[in-house]
Amino acid sequence: MALSEVHWDHQIPLPKLAPVQAKITVALVALLCFINSYDGEFVFDDSEAIVNNKDLKPATPLGNLWSNDFWGSNLSSNSSHKSYRPLTVLTFRLNYLLAGGLHPVGFHVWNIILHAVISALMIDMFAILIGGLAYDEKGKILNHAPKASLLAALFFAAHPVHTESVAGIVGRADLLCALFFQLSFLTYCRAFHGGEDERFSVQWIVVSLLLCAAAMLCKEQGITVLGVNAAFDVLLICNVNVYELSQRLLLRKKPIDVNELLRTGLLTRLALLALGGTSMLYARWRIMGTGPPAFTEVDNPASFAENIFLRVMNYNYYYSLNAWLLLCPWWLCFDWSMGCVPLIKSATDWRMVWLLLLWCVLIGLISQAVCSQDSQRRRVGFVIAERVLYLSSAGYCLLLAYSLGYCCYHWAKYSRLLCVSVLALLCVYVARCALRSHQWRSEQSLFTSALSVCPLNAKVHYNVGKNLADRGNTSAAIKYYREAVRLHPTYVHAMNNLGNILKERNELVEAEQLLSKAVSIQPDFAAAWMNLGIVQNSLQKFEEAEQSYWNAIRFRKKYPDCYYNLGRLYADQNRHLDALNAWRNATVLKPDHSLAWNNMVILLDNTGNLGQAELIGREALKLLPNDHTIMFSLANVLGKLQKYKESEGFFLHALRINPNAASCHGNLAVLYHRWGKLELAKKHYELSLKLDPEAPGTRDNYNMLRRKLDQLKRHTP
Known about the structure:
Number of helices: 33
Largest sheet: none
InterPro entries: O-mannosyl-transferase_TMTC, TMTC_DUF1736, TPR-like_helical_dom_sf, TPR_rpt
Enzyme class: transferase
Pathway: Protein modification; protein glycosylation
Transmembrane segments: 112-135, 200-217, 223-243, 315-332, 352-371, 383-402, 414-435
Number of strands: 0
EC number: 2.4.1.109
Structural class: mainly alpha
Shape: elongated
Helix content: 55-70%
């Protein structure tokens, strides 16, 4: 393997630190950049991957992690995203157990620590890629480029493009994948600890493959470390000149010395990597079950371009935008879909210039990697091809540090200016990280920050509207939902949410139009069918509402909320048995469906089936022992059955949970009135009227009680 001192390393304007000091310095910079995100909320995709993911709950069997995708859906389902990351979900579950619930601080702290560790380990990776692979007599990696590797690691630690991976909790997948990626690469390097080309350790290569598998179980891109290891082996360990080798193969000028390749063990190692990679891909394919996920035009618009030429051009334009974000990480957005990046639709689009520039740079770097006689240039050249999202910036940081070192060596008289420039760039990076990670602390700041970056992105307007609606500002939410639909006329989720708000504002005609359009665009949109049924029920279009509910259930078999609303429809039509069956289905599918249980008790009470109402109420309280609404309804039933003492107990228990319930005080007063405990009845009538002076019937009952008390006083001697 080619080893040499990096002659320009000493010119870099950084102190030469001991290995441990360098790692601590880089880790501290990483912590400084993102520490202000430690107390952030669950934002954006965290809701689905963490908050609503049942795989995090202790009650869920651990085995489910190995059969479900990243979002908690079964991999065999056609609706599964197929993102298989069980090790990442396992760390989320561990966070949940340690914190005793969904407390975001612990999740954020883990992410920040992981980034600090990865940044520190980057020093070892950069040291090998810049200065070559060598060990001292104690088996520790020798760093022939201590300043360059430190500078590159500092750039990596502070790069603002990492904010989403660190400050967004679902970015844990990128962090863990990067960590195991690094460990796999460094372990592969350990296989050559003997120092001679023909000596290598199969055991270390096997360990490297296992770490690659772990990286893949954190995020799918982890398997790309096999390509990095193979390129590292060919270009740096065996010092193969790929250009010369290709000339031999194509022109057959000189035969390839197969014995030499066998002697160095290169073919054996490449065979092991190929076997390991093939096994992992086969296992991954088998686990996916029904094949790859089906993405829509919203998810990946470039895949739906008119022809293959435009598809390829748009893919390459996306690559150029990623490269620009590495160079100038100022315009950062949580989502780049839905019109954020308009498609290239012809070869005359001026943006084609960026594609040409990108490929000129890449071709130049690849030529350095495979054709250069300078081993140091080769080491820097090949790593930039790594396209893993979080790790892709490592190639940029390495190239940036290499360029600065080169400038410092050849332009020594400007060393002071270069020193100031490096310091200024790091300070700008740190400041930008601090600002961006602060924006990731809440959904409100995250979503609104994207409006100036991607004003044409319908999803940005949708998320701003959703956040406003969740905080009760429905008037402002309507504006953003309408803009989302204007920008993307087939955005069914925006139509559904807008229709819901209009429904609550009793603007039923427009709500019906929006929801009808949503289900015509996406006929299997179960939630929109259910909401359409609710609107049609309110418009007294009972037959259409019933059909909409059944459509929702057809597309989502286990839909307890839809059964609940179907029961309400039947109750409005006095189809009592159908209503009870629908609500019973809701409680079977969701045993803690409080509204369905309560409605069954109330309906049975109103129809005079007091005994059955009592049984249902007691059954519900076994599952929901602290539900004050069910206690209230059961207490009413027991009062009518003249079980006054037991009824009183449930009323008082309900009031301990919800002491400001005027109706509960009022009905308890009625119970005491019937029971003959008139002073207690008077007390609770007054409490009820104090909480709600307009409570129906309470004032009349109170006046009746006062007249009775006055009569008793007059007849008392």
